[in-house]
């Protein structure tokens, strides 16, 4: 008789999640690393304010170009080889960045690192995808928490290292992290990949997101999220009178809220997987309310407001990835989530530019936060318009409310895709 492990994910799934979190944290560490040392890089290479802002934009543009091809490659070749490749491409890009003699070479390296970042996301959506709908929201959210975790590490470590050893030597740390994560995935990822299969037995809710309509949610929510991160520091210094160090701590609070919010919302959505889209709407509305707190609350409550913004306006990602994965056709989770990442990265590039223009035109930061809140509300409307009930349930569908085993064996679920 197989050994029963009530409520315990199988080892292959746990390892897949651990590898995915490690990969995304390494990717976030590398992508945020250049922005974290932007003052030192600016002084060395003579970057303008526009050049500093272009660091993130160029990285996201690179990610946008490779997200969908990487998803298709994941469905064809398996997640482990694609994920390892993406991490090594990121390492190559960071190498170019660290050795760049001029600005043009520096941005070429950022673009290469961005293409690698676009490659690593879709395979993690397959590598960490559980067979049960009742686990998918939490698992995907825990996985996605690796991104802000990498950002926290970059903000905490790299400026300190850069001030002592220089920003080029500091870049060796994210470079080595990407290489080590890539080698680990190459060695261990094959085991989890063997248990993933082609996605034909995934249990999914009957009420799912209609695609491609639902991709718009990722565009507006990612645009609002990146805009919040891009402008919070400047806002806290210029409008609230904080020092640069205090503003940096404020951004850290945002990231902490995001790290905590993602698994929290994922767990909540797993309580009723058939209502996962309703949960996305709730997160969007709460995110809109939270953003308005940034310019409404008194200075003493700013830390609380920043945590709440992180919980809501940054915590949506894992639940959204779970919803997109459940809307994918069998064997196409990588390609479908890769397509969603194209819109996510496009929003990350376009919306900060739009909000920056609006703030400059209006001369008031409150207008920028209102636009961020409006983007969150637009996300709730997009989800409402993209709800779909399949006309008939094929072998790949299964109601999240239909009878499922209350207890699973580790051996049984490892055989499920």
Ends apart, CA distance between termini: 22 Å
Q: In order across it, which strands form the biggest sheet?
A: 1-2
Number of strands: 2
| Rg computed from alpha carbons, rounded to a whole number of angstroms | 21 Å
Basic shape: globular
State the major sheet: 2 strands, antiparallel
Helicity level: over 70%
Order of helices and strands: HHHHHHHHHEHHHHHHHEH
Mean pLDDT: 82
Structural class: mainly alpha
* Number of helical regions: 17
Low-confidence stretches: 1-6, 193-201, 391-417
- Kindly estimate the percentage of residues that lie in beta strands according to DSSP: under 5%
Describe the 3D structure:
- Helix 11 packs across helix 13.
- Helices cover 77% and strands 1% of the residues.
- It has a two-stranded antiparallel sheet with strand order 1-2.
- It is built from 17 helices and 2 strands.
- With 417 residues, the protein is an all-alpha fold.
- The two termini are 22 Å apart.
């Amino acid at each position: 008789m197989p050994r029963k492990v009530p409520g315990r994910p199988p080892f292959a799934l746990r390892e897949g999640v651990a590898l995915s979190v490690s990969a995304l944290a390494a990717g976030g560490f590398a992508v945020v690393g250049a922005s974290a040392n932007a003052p030192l890089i600016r002084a060395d290479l003579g970057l303008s304010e526009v050049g500093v802002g272009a660091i993130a934009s160029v990285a996201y543009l690179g990610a946008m170009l490779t997200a969908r091809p990487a998803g298709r490659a994941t469905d064809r070749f398996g997640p482990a080889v694609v994920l390892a490749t993406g991490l090594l491409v990121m390492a190559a890009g960071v190498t170019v960045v660290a050795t760049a003699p001029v600005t043009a070479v520096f941005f070429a390296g950022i673009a290469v690192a961005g293409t690698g970042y676009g490659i690593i996301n879709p395979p993690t959506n397959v590598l960490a995808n559980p067979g049960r709908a009742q686990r998918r929201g939490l698992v995907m959210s825990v996985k996605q928490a690796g991104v802000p975790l990498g950002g926290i590490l970059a903000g905490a470590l790299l400026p300190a290292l850069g001030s002592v050893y220089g920003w080029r030597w500091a870049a060796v740390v994210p470079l080595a992290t990407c290489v080590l994560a890539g080698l680990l995935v190459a060695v261990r990822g094959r085991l989890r990949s063997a248990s993933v299969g082609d996605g034909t037995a995934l249990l999914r809710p009957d009420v799912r997101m209609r695609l491609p309509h639902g991709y718009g949610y990722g565009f507006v929510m990612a645009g609002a999220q990146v805009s919040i991160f891009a402008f919070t520091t400047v806002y806290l210094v210029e409008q609230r009178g904080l020092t640069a160090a205090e503003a940096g701590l404020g951004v850290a609070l945002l990231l902490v809220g995001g790290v905590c919010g993602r698994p929290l919302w994922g767990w909540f959505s797993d309580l009723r997987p058939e209502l996962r889209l309703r949960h996305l709407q709730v997160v969007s509305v709460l995110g809109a309310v939270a953003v308005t707190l940034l310019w409404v609350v008194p200075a003493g409550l700013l830390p609380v407001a920043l945590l709440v913004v992180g919980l809501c306006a940054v915590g949506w990602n894992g639940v959204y990835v779970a919803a997109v994965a459940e809307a994918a056709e069998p064997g196409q989770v990588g390609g479908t989530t890769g397509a969603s990442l194209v819109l996510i990265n496009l929003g990350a590039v376009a919306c900060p530019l739009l909000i920056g223009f609006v703030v400059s035109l209006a001369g008031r930061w409150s207008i920028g936060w209102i636009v961020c809140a409006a983007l969150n509300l637009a996300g709730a409307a997009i989800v409402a318009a993209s709800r779909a009930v399949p006309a008939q349930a094929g072998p790949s569908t299964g109601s999240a409310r239909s009878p499922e085993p209350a207890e699973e064996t580790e051996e049984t679920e490892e055989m499920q895709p």
